[in-house]
From TrEMBL:
One of its GO terms (cellular component) is Golgi membrane. GO terms for biological process: protein transport. InterPro entries: BET1_SNARE (IPR039899), T_SNARE_dom (IPR000727). The lineage of its organism: Eukaryota, Viridiplantae, Streptophyta, Embryophyta, Tracheophyta. Belongs to the BET1 family. The keyword Cytoplasm does not apply. Keywords: Coiled coil, Endoplasmic reticulum, Golgi apparatus, Membrane, Protein transport, Transmembrane, Transmembrane helix, Transport. The keyword Transmembrane helix applies. This is t-SNARE coiled-coil homology domain-containing protein.
Length: 116
């Protein structure tokens, strides 16, 4: 019994136990430092990704603003064209109507042959 106990606790005194606890504390500190380094790397990666996302969102917002402006201008152009058609259709002139229909047919045929 005595030899087993001696082999188990050989060289451990009060100071030895404290030194062992201190070594465990040092190991924990090193692990914490490694974990903190890993977290710093992850945070920097997330920061870069969020910056890239921000740039992408701003670019898409600018593109959407330009598209909105283009749509507004085309809406204005189309409303002017529709108003002109209304005035043409409101007049009962058969000559104008014939010219208009012939123009549309000619335009349609031209576009048809150009796209073929």
């Amino acid at each position: 019994y005595r030899s087993t106990r001696t082999a188990l606790f050989d060289g451990i005194e009060e100071g030895g136990i404290r030194a062992s606890a201190y070594s465990s504390h040092e190991i924990d500190e090193h692990e914490n430092e490694r974990a903190m380094d890993g977290l710093q790397d992850r945070v920097s990666i997330l920061k870069r990704i969020s910056g890239d996302i921000n740039e992408e969102v701003e670019a898409h917002n600018r593109m959407l603003d330009r598209m909105g402006n283009d749509m507004d201008s085309s809406r204005g152009f189309l409303s002017g064209t529709v108003d002109k058609f209304k005035t043409v259709f409101e007049t009962k002139s058969s000559r104008r109507m014939g010219t208009l229909v012939a123009s549309f047919v000619a335009l349609f045929m031209l576009v048809y042959y150009l796209t073929r």
